[in-house]
Every structure is written in C-alpha cells, then in structure tokens.
Amino acid sequence: MQGVDLVEAQSLWDPKPGWLNTASYGLPPRPAWDALQEALEIWRTGAQSWEQWDEATVRSRAAYARLVRVEPADVFAGSTVSAAVGLIASAIPDNSTVLIPDVEFTSNVFPWAVHADRGVTVVIAGHAFVQNLRRGRYELAVDEPVTLRVKAAFDEPLSVKIN
C-alpha cells in the first residue's frame, strides 16, 4: 500500500464552505462516493448478486487487520456500533462491570446499560483518567496485570456507578 500526501488526500473531498466535520457525520472522499454509486446502481437494477459485497467486506477486514497487525478473523464488520456492541453485551457474564469513557456515544452505552437487570454495572470515568490508569501512571491496582488494572481500580470505591 502506498502513502498519499496531505494535499492529494484533501483533494479527494468536496465540502461546501462552512461544513463542520463531526464524528457522527463525515463526508465521503470522492473514490468512496463513486464506489457507493456503482454499488447502488448494481443493487437498484439487480445487475449482480450480493456476493461481490461479501468479497469486498473480506478484503476490507484483511486490509484493516494488516493495518492494526491482527488476524482478519479478529476484525468484526457490522452495520452499526450498537448492534455489534449489543451482541457482546448480551454475552458478558451476569454481574459484570463495564467501563465507559465519559465522552462516549450512546450507541456504546445503551447496549450495556440495558443489562442492569442481570447485575451489569456501567461505570463512567474521564477518558484521560482511564488512559493514564491503563498506562500505570496512578498508584491504583498496580499489582494487577495491565489487562485487569482498570477493572481492579474501579472495584475500589472511587468509581461512579450508573444503572
């Protein structure tokens, strides 16, 4: 895969003056727009079967896996965050604690919160605090393995529990 310089990358978008980027509404680059129009035309006219889209998904998962250095089988592809997280949330054990940053989208909060009847507790904490805790910059849960440090720290009374 070859890199693209900033000026070249910026030329791939066509925003109207005054458009403000947000995490929930991003403009597609021209190549993505063109590919979408092509796929919609194929869908609209029934020119091909859906299998080509599955092949594109497989290629996309493989490309992302290479980018983050994991196996393609470890990359999930889904239509919405809440649907994907909902599957995971329904599978966690009863009485689990879920840690969520205080600036999280509701699509990653509600799928966990609806399991309060099973004793699932959602703990909301400041993002910087969570990141620094993971990095071991606080004297909290330092005797725990890194993968358990955040949970162990929030088992202590400094957490705010939301149900």
Structure description:
The protein is mainly alpha-helical and 163 residues long. The protein has two domains: 26-77, no CATH class; 93-162, no CATH class. It is built from seven helices and three strands; from the N terminus they run H-H-H-H-E-H-E-H-H-E. It has helices at residues 6-10, 30-45, 51-68, 81-91, 110-113, 127-134, 146-154; strands at 97-101, 121-125, 161-162. The termini are far apart.
Q: Total strand count, please? A: 3
CA distance, first residue to last residue: 46 Å
Give me the strand/helix succession.
Answer: HHHHEHEHHE
Strand content: 5-15%
Shape: extended
Q: Roughly what percent helix? A: 40-55%
Poorly predicted ranges (pLDDT <50, ≥5 residues)?
156-163
Q: What Rg is obtained from the alpha carbons, in whole angstroms?
A: 21 Å
Q: How would a textbook summarize the main sheet? A: 3 strands, mixed
User: Order of strands in the sheet with the most strands?
Assistant: 1-2-3
Give the helix tally. 7
Count of the separate structural domains: 2
Structural class: mainly alpha
Mean pLDDT: 81
What is the topology?
Elements: H1 6-10, H2 30-45, H3 51-68, H4 81-91, E1 97-101, H5 110-113, E2 121-125, H6 127-134, H7 146-154, E3 161-162
Parallel strand pairs: 1-2
Antiparallel strand pairs: 2-3
